[in-house]
Specification:
alpha+beta; nine-stranded antiparallel β-sheet; 23 strands; 23% strand; flat
Length: 736
Amino acid sequence: MATEGDSQLRESAEDGVSPKAVRRTISLRSSLARSLMLMIFMSAGVILVVTYQFSSRVVEDLSEKLIHQQLDHTSLALEKFFLPIESDLQLFRQWGNAGLLQPVDLGAIVRPESDGAALPAPAVIRLNERFIPLLEQLEHVTSIMIADSRGEEYLLLREQDHWLNRVSGPEIWGSDTFWMRRNDDGSYDDAFWKTLDYDPRTRPWFVGAMERADSGEVHWTAPYRFFTTKAPGITASLRWADPNDPELTYVIAFDVLMLELSRFTTSLEISPRGKALILTEDRVVAGLPRDSRFETPEQMRTHLLSRVEDLGLPELADGAAAAEARNLSPDEIFWFTSGNEIWWAGVQPFRLGDSVLRVVVVAPENDFLAGVIEQRNILLAITACALLAAFLLALILARRYSTPLAALAAQAERIQRLDVAEPAEIETNIREVEQLATSQERMRIALDSFSRYVPLEVVRELMKRDEAASIGGSRETITVLFTDVQGFTTIAESLDPEALTRHMSEYFRAMLGTVQGDGFGEVTQLTGDGFVAFWGAPIDCPRHAAQAAATVLACRAALADLNAQWRTRGLPELPTRFGLATGPVVVGNVGSPERLVYTAVGDTINLASRLEGINRFYGTWVLASEETRRAAGDAFAWRRVDRVRAKGKQQAIDLYELLGHTGEVPAERLEFAARYEAALDQFRERDFTAAGTALEALAREFPDDRSVARLLDLIREFGVNRPPDDWDGTTNFQVK
């Protein structure tokens, strides 16, 4: 009777394999069955391990969720805390621009050397009656100041049962300041003079507002102690120019007590022992956490503006140190240890103008999930022994199964490299692995035979080019160029086809030679009278934007020489528009398996095409995106032409005209660019009068500039039909 081994011997002999190579084997299924018999006893341990991992994840997920919720809640409350201040400042700035906030007349106030103290000036009363009802609604604002560039200031300060005014004018009165008190019933029962070394122009809120120029954004100081009350706080300020005297600038400011901010943060109930606080970027405390030491106003004033390490709360000091050591990204939740206990914490930035406050939330893990943590620790103890045994068994099984499979994998890699000269020695008693080794050896023999007919070097070259010849690509950041000949249809009609072909051949020879001659440019497509090129792939070019800009300038120079030659030969000139855009694309092969094209695909390609076409609206020849201008660096001179939203785009971008290499652009052209950009800023800020005046002067000097004429036309239209409130100065193009 034939045995299983005899059958194997016969099969091997028929396949041409020596019987000596046959070893007694067992099936992989039998081997796995025996192994699983042992693993059954470990299944309970595996379940416990999985349960432990799940519970650990629950602890982490719930902790992160709770911290995120508290951070979002606190940030939302801060927005409600600060937003009315910024809104009212913007309202007052509009009043100032409209001439509704008249300055205090210092001449109407009795001088110190006069007899007695005069009743308040009407301007002071008028401002008081306007601002007091507002400050009564903003309980966390303690005072309001209006100061001008001459140093004259009006102050309205809230005190417990009355209001206090201070009027100063250092250029007229020197160190003398005028004070008066207004009662809650509206009467003024005290007016006096006080010597004070004070000039509002030196205060941080005034300096910061002046530095913001005419941006219209609110300036927020860093936390500090107020000059008059010495209370810790922060000041928001905003400037405007006198509508009747542009040389005179006003600044309005609100003082916000940090005491009110701390009352808010100390009232937050994160968890039984959790805390929320507000810090500056230098870890100075702007809003105190909940603690028995910070319950009274006096206790809060004492500890405000302290560093977080000086609060005497170890968990906050340890959390700050852990966050700094880990270099965390914004909104990242992390854990740390303090007092032999795990704490969870999160930091979320809150921006106030140029300043950034940090909302910090910390809470001990036990506050959230004491029951889950206890269960997790029990599971850990139960499964420790089972895990160890399973680990040892896994090592044994892995060695048993992986050794022959690893040898097969190594042989497969050699076959992939077409290294088929020597067979592999695979030793195993697992039947399925033995069958796989036999099949692989037959494949090696077949490839070795095939190599007798086709040289291996040819096959290796085909395999090496397999990735380049297949559909697909890689994501890269490149700079893309689109070109187009202006008025090409008319030019084409003026020449017979043969002459036009020769003319365009001469044009493309110069243009494409310039692009490809820089060693980095890649021309991917000809579009009749234009072409598409990019820099940054397939040849690596770290400064692809600068290389593209330099090549475009070289193309312009070559085209100028060609146009001069064509004029003398009686041929039409070929004025060319260029569009440059920088950004991410997918570069590679597209098409079908039978026909591939190496090109780039992505929104950056569409943007470059739009920019080329937009040239005609501004009378420009080279337009580039803001990303191209930034990436090109300082080696080039640019003119910011407009902020546009191209057809089919949601995102608006700043548009730049490439003027030339830095240092090579005529001073007259640079001056024109600077004056145009200044007028453009005024236009976008709705200062149409000033923008129109500047542009009319430019139009007289440069009557053929289409970009100047275009802005003037818009200003005239807005003089009849004012733009809507949400107009931001962006030009929306509805055509390509």
